[in-house]
Write a structure and sequence with these properties.
This protein folds into two domains: 141 residues, Aspartate Aminotransferase, domain 1 (Alpha-Beta Complex), CATH 3.90.1150.10; 235 residues, Type I PLP-dependent aspartate aminotransferase-like (Major domain) (Aspartate Aminotransferase, domain 2, 3-Layer(aba) Sandwich). It is 39% helix and 14% strand. It is built from 15 helices and 13 strands. Strands 2-8-7-6-5-3-4 form a seven-stranded mixed beta sheet, with helices on both faces. Bound molecules: pyridoxal-5'-phosphate (PLP). The site of pyridoxal-5'-phosphate has 14 residues, from helix 4.
C-alpha cells in the first residue's frame, strides 16, 4: 500500500511534461494523460459517426458516450440522469439560470459572491432584469475569505438560491460547501456550488455535500474541454427544460442540453476515469475497490503530494517582503488548493510572468475572470495578480526552479 504519490509514475503519464517546461498554470487548464489521449484517438478512429443508430459504428459510438456519462457521474457521486455535459461551466450556468428564471418572481432574492469566477456570478446577476434582488456575499478584504457569518446575515425567507465557490481560483482557499448548503437549506434556499477549482485537487461527492447544483470543468481535471453540471434529480425534473419543445420534461438529462454536446469530447472523458484507475492500480496493486473508494485513495495521495511540494512556495510567498500573497499564508491541504496568487512590490504583474517565460516557467497573470475579486483587492491597475497553480504532477524540482526564479526576479 502506497503512502505517497509516485511522482515519476505520474509524470510518465503526461507526455507534454517531456518538453521541459514547469507548468504552473494548471488552474487555467491541466495537461492530459495518455489514457485520455488514447480514448480521444480511439473514438476518432473507430466511432466518429452520428450515435443512436442501429448500425455497428453508430451503436459503438452510443456505447462509448454512455460509458463516459457513467464515468463522469461516478466521478462526482451522481447518477447519469443528474449530469449535464455542456461546452463549458459558464455555458452550463447560463442554461441553469435560464431554467431557474420561470421559478422566480420580483422580490425573490439570490445571493452571489464577489470572490467567485464570473461564471457562477454573471448569469445569476442578470436575473435582476426580472426583478430578482441580487445580494453580494463579500469576502473580507483583510483575508480575502468568505465567512459563513456574513452569509447568515444575508439569508432571509425570500432567498431562493445561494451561489458560491467551493475553492477560489485566485486565492486557492477552500470553502465548506456542506456548511454553505446547510445554511442555505435551513433558510429554505437552494445552493449552486462552483467546484471548478476544487475538483482537480479533492474528490467531489455531491451527495455528501448535499448541494443542489454543482459545476466542474473537465479540462481542469486532466480531461477534455467540456463542462460537467450536476443537477439533483428532483430539481432536474422540476426545472423547465432548455432543449427543444418535443424533448419531454422527464427526459433526463437531455431536457437540459441545449444543442447537444461534442461527441468526441464527451467520449474521451472516460480517459479521466481510466487515469485515476491507473493511479490506483499502480499505488494499491491487487486492491479491488469500487471506483468511489479508488478516487478517495488517489485524491488523498494527490492532496498530500500537492501540500508537500507547494510548501516551499507558500513559505517564500508568505515570508518575502517584496511579495504579497493574496489569501491564506499556508500550504495546508485542509485550508487550500495549491493555487497561489501574488503581486510583486513595484512591478506590474505582466513583467513578472514575462521574466518567468524566459526560464521555461509557465504562469499567467490577470484576473482569471474572478474580476470582482481582483478589482476589490485593488490589483487591476497593475495587471492583476500573478498566479502559480500546481497540480499533483508538479514535482519538488519544478517548485525549486520557480522559487529560485522568483527570488531573482522580484
Ligand atoms: C473557479 C472557476 N469557475 C468557473 C470557470 C469557468 O469555466 P469554463 O471555462 O468551463 O466556463 C473557471 C475557469 O477558469 C474557474 O476557474
Amino acid at each position: 500500500m502506497a503512502d505517497r504519490l509516485d511522482i515519476d509514475f505520474v509524470r510518465a503519464q503526461f507526455p507534454q511534461l517531456a518538453d521541459g517546461w514547469g507548468y504552473f498554470d494548471n488552474a487555467g487548464g491541466t495537461l492530459v494523460p495518455k489514457q485520455f489521449i488514447a480514448r480521444m484517438t480511439d473514438y476518432l478512429t473507430t466511432s466518429r459517426v452520428q450515435p443512436n443508430g442501429t448500425y455497428g459504428p453508430s451503436a459503438k459510438a452510443t456505447e462509448r458516450l454512455t460509458e463516459a456519462k457513467r464515468a463522469m457521474a461516478a466521478l462526482i457521486n451522481a447518477t447519469p440522469e443528474e449530469i449535464v455535459l455542456g461546452h463549458s461551466t459558464t455555458n452550463n450556468v447560463f442554461v441553469l439560470a435560464n431554467a431557474f428564471r420561470s421559478r422566480l418572481k420580483p422580490g425573490d432574492e439570490i445571493i452571489v459572491t464577489n470572490l467567485d469566477h464570473e461564471s457562477n456570478n454573471g448569469a445569476w446577476r442578470r436575473l435582476a432584469d426580472i426583478g430578482v434582488v441580487v445580494k453580494e456575499w463579500r469576502m473580507r478584504p483583510e483575508t480575502a475569505d468568505l465567512e459563513l457569518d456574513d452569509l447568515k446575515a444575508l439569508l432571509t425567507d425570500k432567498t431562493k438560491l445561494v451561489c458560491a465557490t467551493h475553492c477560489s481560483n485566485v486565492t486557492g482557499s477552500e470553502n465548506d460547501a456542506a456548511a454553505i448548503a446547510k445554511l442555505a437549506h435551513d433558510a429554505g434556499a437552494l445552493v449552486c456550488i462552483d467546484g471548478v477549482a476544487h475538483a482537480p485537487h479533492r474528490r467531489v461527492d455531491v451527495r455528501a455535500t448535499g448541494v443542489d447544483f454543482y459545476l466542474c470543468s473537465l479540462y481542469k481535471i486532466f480531461g477534455p474541454h467540456h463542462g460537467l453540471m450536476y443537477i439533483k434529480r428532483e430539481h432536474m425534473l422540476a426545472l423547465k427544460g432548455q432543449n427543444h419543445f418535443f424533448i419531454a420534461e422527464d427526459n433526463l438529462p437531455l431536457k437540459m442540453n441545449v444543442g447537444g454536446y461534442d461527441y468526441e469530447t464527451v467520449a474521451s472523458a472516460t480517459g479521466i476515469a481510466d487515469y485515476f484507475q491507473a493511479l490506483h492500480a499502480h499505488h494499491f496493486p491487487g486492491a479491488n475497490r469500487p471506483f468511489g473508494e479508488q478516487l478517495d485513495r488517489v485524491y488523498d495521495l494527490m492532496a498530500r503530494h500537492e501540500e508537500a511540494v507547494s510548501k516551499p512556495l507558500a513559505d517564500f510567498l508568505s515570508a518575502d517582503k517584496r511579495v504579497k500573497l493574496v489569501g491564506r499564508k499556508s500550504a495546508d491541504r485542509k485550508l487550500r488548493a495549491p493555487t497561489f496568487s501574488f503581486v510583486v512590490e513595484g512591478k506590474n504583474s505582466d513583467d513578472v510572468t514575462k521574466a518567468l517565460d524566459a526560464q521555461k516557467l509557465g504562469l499567467r497573470h490577470g484576473t482569471f475572470y474572478a474580476h470582482r475579486a481582483v478589482d476589490s483587492l485593488g490589483y487591476l491597475p497593475r495587471g492583476g495578480v500573478v498566479r502559480a497553480s500546481l497540480v499533483h504532477y508538479n514535482s519538488a524540482e519544478d517548485v525549486k526552479r520557480l522559487v529560485g526564479a522568483l527570488d531573482r526576479i522580484v
